[in-house]
Amino acid sequence: MNNAAGILCFKRAILALRLQPLTLVGTSVFAALLTITFSGIPLAGTVLASLWMPFSAVLTGIATRDALAGRSPSYAPLLSAVKDHRDRKELLTAGIVYTILTELLTFVFTWLAREDIANWKLTEDGLGLDTASIAGNIPWEAILVTGALYVPVLMMTAFSPLLIVLGRQSAGKSFFYSFFGTLRNFGTVLLAVLVFVVLFGGSFALLEVALLSVGLEGFFLFVSPLLMAVILTVANALVWTLYEAVLSREPFC
Fold it and tell me: Is 44 left (phi over 0), alpha (psi -120 to 50) or beta?
């Protein structure tokens, strides 16, 4: 596949947002709010958020498919996946595997970063961390190693939920096809991700600098959640358009 297909996938993600702006943003915000809610639960929060991840991907992925097909996204596919015994079992299995892997990566990060984190200091009032001590002890080794290890995990799990529900695959088989489908088309996926990061990340940073430089901090605090909702929606839509390009039998990209 031509690597330039990644740009077409990005354009289709933007198109999905243009076609169904309110409902598509609504599904992404709903999925994100549930993740945040689960994460905030003591002790079991991280596990619950990871178990929700495959169901979230089904909701936002199929919502993007429907938007591109001219239909209004709904929560019916999520409810169907929850009710269907096979889908529910395989999605939960995928979530459990994802939970185990992310917990292992968290342990690796914590272990590698232990010396740097030990040098972080509290502010004089004891209410927060001293930013200077953090800046001088950024755990770069932990960040780079953990980031490198997370890439294959992401390759394995990114398209797994959609393969389970739409491709009728088992969790194990979906991991295999998600990983090697991404690997075979790594240039396409990487280009799409880079375009997304550069355009949205750069635009967000420039807007923040511009507003802060003219003293509109309050306005930025007001609009930033809206911008983040849009960015999150495009990111979720990009997962679907890449799924079409990389794993669908009749790719659109």
Answer: alpha
pTM for this model (two decimals)? 0.86
- What distance in Å separates the CA atoms of residue 212 and residue 217, rounded to the nearest whole number? 5
Identify whether the C-beta of residue 232 lies closer than 8 Å to the C-beta of residue 32.
yes
Helix (H, G, I), strand (E, B) or coil at 248: coil
Task: Give the whole-angstrom CA distance, residue 25 versus residue 226.
Answer: 10
DSSP 186-246: HHHHHHHHHHHIIIIIHHHHHHHHHHHHTT-HHHHHHHHHHHHHHHHHHHHHHHHHHHHHH
Return the structure tokens found at 236: 């979720």
What six digits make up the tokens of 135?
A: 């800046």
- Quickly count: other Cβ atoms within 10 Å of residue 205's Cβ: 10
| Closest residue by Cα to residue 47 from 103, 90, 108 | 103
Instruction: Report how far residue 170's alpha carbon sits from residue 248's, in angstroms, rounded to the nearest whole number.
Output: 17
The per-residue pLDDT for range 54-111, each reduced to its tens digit, is 999 999 999 999 999 999 999 999 999 999 999 999 999 999 999 999 989 999 999 9
- Is residue 164 a contact partner of residue 243, using CB atoms and an 8 Å limit? no
- The whole-angstrom separation of Cα 211 and Cα 208 is 5
User: How many Cβ atoms from other residues are within 10 Å of residue 88's Cβ?
Assistant: 15
